[in-house]
Recover the amino acids of this structure.
């Protein structure tokens, strides 16, 4: 558990509530607050884990009884639709990450390095379209993907996901490139490097840490996405989040199976949280 | 590929620099146009038509759908207040909690890494999973919340079958999901503040509250403005957690704008009406976002 040790309190003259507490009381209070915060933020996930380990007959009284089993995971992994959904989610997330980053890295670079009417127009365009609610274009997307014959296929979900990311990621990428000194690129161009060469050989390597961070977030975002998957896919291309929600919608209230699927889908998220923390935090700083 | 593009002498009479700029944004423009702008136009077109999913005659009806939505008491008296109430409550609560947590985490102590990891957790969890878990925990018969209430001698509450308790559960989920985001951004903001004003305040023996009120808060304002604008826009279009927790129920009492458009289009199978609602919502949020940005910007200017 956490043990807190504070740096020596700064000398202050006005005695407040905390100083009035017994020695160490302030530290205890801080410790308690931190434990409470941890519990509050971890509880739903812990409860999910606990539910997933309960056999079907005991799931409605998770807090009572001590029967635990791994049978739920076995049963869930035995369902072809879950396995297929996992594979689909994985493929879509990975491809969407690669495509979105590829598309927006150049756009962000352009926004960061140039001034004038073209970047200004593009910037206001992405600013406005970033605000448009998803529901107002995901409904017609249903018809657009149908008309293009890509409804309920990989492409039909992949390309809309890329479009979702265009606005926000261009914006974030601009921030990354703003933080990189352009004088190296000018030097490279004076030495005979083309514009593309300066972008690809000089600016890109410097942006790699930012790209990594954004790649992680993009992958997780697509993996966790629900609305687009719900509307743009049907039985041919099941997606994990939708399949998971169906355990407690249409097929009755199978909380134990739902939890097991949810725990499986949480795997990548947990790995990222523990090992990729540094990158994630960097990526979140818009 | 695009290099040949740039090498060509005159493409639409543009100079080499402009061609390079256009080539850089071309793929992004392509994705934006085909999978966002074209659908939005399709939707706008559908909103003027009698477009039912089961019977697509698509006769032009002018503003009928708009008039229907704008005179629908459900939309005016339930959906709009819900949406804006949810936005204000969610952004307010997560901002307050996020700021408090950021201030706590902005000091060095052992176990800070652990706390930070736990706080990151909700950001990585799918909103659907969080919503399903909340639904499970607030289940009126088997949920852990009622078990705990029972333990302390309170009567069980039918959380998800009443408007305000269901709303509370939705709000709680959203705050749980987004407080960490505020915490991390504000923490980053706190850590990049210059130390001199704080040292000066210490020499002047300012109380912690006054330091917070007159130094930390004004200097954090730019970060807070960005957070508030981004989160408000996202909170306006919340869909998945409301859909999973209450489905807009009981009896459409917790419907927010996205749910209303979805339900009109895919459950009442009236695509024209759903599109009209979506267009109205899009206009509301675009103007709201611009206004909000302007007001908050002025707030920042004043503090400078």
């Amino acid at each position: 558990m956490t043990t807190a040790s504070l740096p020596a309190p700064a000398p202050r003259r006005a005695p407040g509530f905390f100083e009035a507490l017994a020695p160490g009381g302030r530290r205890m209070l801080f410790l308690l607050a931190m434990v409470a915060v941890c519990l509050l933020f971890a509880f739903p996930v812990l409860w999910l884990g606990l539910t997933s380990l309960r056999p079907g007959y005991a799931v409605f009284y998770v807090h009572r009884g001590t029967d635990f089993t791994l049978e739920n995971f076995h049963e869930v992994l035995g369902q072809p639709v879950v396995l297929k959904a996992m594979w689909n989610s994985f493929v879509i997330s990975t491809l969407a990450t690669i495509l979105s980053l590829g598309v927006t890295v150049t756009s962000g670079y352009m926004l960061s390095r140039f001034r004038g009417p073209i970047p200004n127009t593009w910037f206001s365009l992405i600013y406005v379209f970033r605000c448009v609610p998803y529901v107002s274009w995901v409904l017609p997307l249903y018809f657009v993907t149908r008309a293009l014959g890509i409804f309920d296929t990989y492409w039909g979900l992949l390309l809309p996901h890329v479009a979702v990311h265009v606005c926000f990621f261009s914006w974030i990428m601009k921030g990354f490139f703003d933080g990189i000194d352009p004088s190296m690129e000018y030097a490279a161009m004076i030495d005979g490097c083309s514009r593309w060469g300066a972008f690809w050989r000089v600016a890109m390597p410097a942006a790699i840490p930012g790209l990594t961070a954004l790649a992680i977030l993009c992958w997780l975002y697509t993996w966790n996405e629900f609305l687009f998957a719900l509307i743009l896919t049907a039985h041919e291309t099941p997606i994990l989040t939708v399949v998971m929600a169906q355990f407690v919608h249409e097929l009755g209230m199978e909380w134990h199976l739902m939890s097991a699927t949810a725990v499986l889908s949480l795997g990548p998220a947990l790995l990222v949280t523990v090992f990729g923390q540094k990158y994630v935090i960097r990526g979140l700083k818009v | 590929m695009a290099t040949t593009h740039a090498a060509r002498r005159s493409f639409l009479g543009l100079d080499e620099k402009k061609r390079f700029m256009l080539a850089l944004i071309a793929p992004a423009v392509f994705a934006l146009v085909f999978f966002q702008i074209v659908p939005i136009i399709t939707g706008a077109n559908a909103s003027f038509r009698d477009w039912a999913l089961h019977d697509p005659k698509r006769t032009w009806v002018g503003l009928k759908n708009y008039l229907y939505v704008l005179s629908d008491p459900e939309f005016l008296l339930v959906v709009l207040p819900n949406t804006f109430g949810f936005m204000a409550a969610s952004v307010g609560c997560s901002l307050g909690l996020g700021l408090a947590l950021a201030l706590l985490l902005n000091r060095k102590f052992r176990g800070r890494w652990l706390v930070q990891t736990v706080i990151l957790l909700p950001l990585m969890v799918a909103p659907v999973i969080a919503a399903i878990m909340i639904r499970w925990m607030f289940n009126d018969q088997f949920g852990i919340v009622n078990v705990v209430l029972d333990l302390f001698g309170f009567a069980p509450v039918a959380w998800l079958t009443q408007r305000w308790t269901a709303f509370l559960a939705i709000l709680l989920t959203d705050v749980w999901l987004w407080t960490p985001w505020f915490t991390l951004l504000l923490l980053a903001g706190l850590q990049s503040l210059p130390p001199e004003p704080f040292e000066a305040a210490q020499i002047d023996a300012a109380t912690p509250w006054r330091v917070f009120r007159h130094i930390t808060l004004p200097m954090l304002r730019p970060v807070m403005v960005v957070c508030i604008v981004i989160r408000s826009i996202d909170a306006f279009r919340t869909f998945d957690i409301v859909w999973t927790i209450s489905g807009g129920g009981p009896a459409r009492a917790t419907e927010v704008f996205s749910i209303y458009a979805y339900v009109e289009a895919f459950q009442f199978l009236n695509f024209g009406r759903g599109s009209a609602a979506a267009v109205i919502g899009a206009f509301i949020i675009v103007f709201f976002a611009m206004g909000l940005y302007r007001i908050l910007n002025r707030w920042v200017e004043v503090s400078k």
Remarks:
- Residues 2-46 of chain B form one domain.
